[in-house]
Amino acid sequence: MGKMPKGKKAHKGNKITLKTVKKHMKITPDGKQRLVLSKMGIRKIPKCLLKMCSVDEIDLSRNMIKHVPDWIRQFQNLRWLDLHSNKIQKLPESIGDLKALLHLNVSNNKLTTEGIPKSMGELKSLCQLNMGLNLIDTVPPYIRELTELCELGLFDNLITVVPKHILELPNVKKLNIKRNPIPPLKENIKSQEQKNSHAKETLALVNKKDLCEACLTKGVPTWISHGLSFPNSTARK
Length: 237
What we know:
By secondary structure, this protein is largely without helices or strands. The protein has helices spanning 18-23, 164-167, 189-195, 213-218; strands spanning 25-27, 33-36, 57-59, 80-82, 103-105, 128-130, 151-153, 174-176. It has a single domain (18-184), classed as Ribonuclease Inhibitor (Leucine-rich repeat, LRR (right-handed beta-alpha superhelix)). The model is unreliable at 7-11, 186-208 and 218-237 (pLDDT under 50).
């Protein structure tokens, strides 16, 4: 195996200093502090960010980050966190301490079901959660605790069953679960109409066996159509 040329070093990602961080601080139209460190070749979230823990929004998307540190809990004002397009396999339990968080984007990573901590259910203020383009095969039951959730992205994962707790989320208006290996419906729409008086408003893209008994009793919600996206909405990646 050949040696690297003299004077060359293996690429370890860009070093981010406090000075760099301060240069990338912006103010949003509503007066919030937003730190934009997207597309900077970052492999490890720099600890110097702790000097800016009063920030409201952080964009660390499109980097090479594999690990989210426990000290993320110290960002108590954080309302918006974008970690999409990295190499993250799991989130820390401390993510649940971000009580002010409204928007979380962890799409296009290597996140597995096991990598979603139970503490995620403690993000009671969360409005938007994007976990699309990952390796999730089951949606954890504690997602049902996110009662303020309006948008949920689970597209391009390994999900085979539409879980009951997704259908029970009271405020969800956009649900994108497209391009998952969910089996197609065996029975056509006409036969469903004969069996269910509400079926005229229903178009299901899942097997009846893949839905719980309670869901079948109630009838499948009308918004489970067009890849489980809500009517008059576009998929948000």
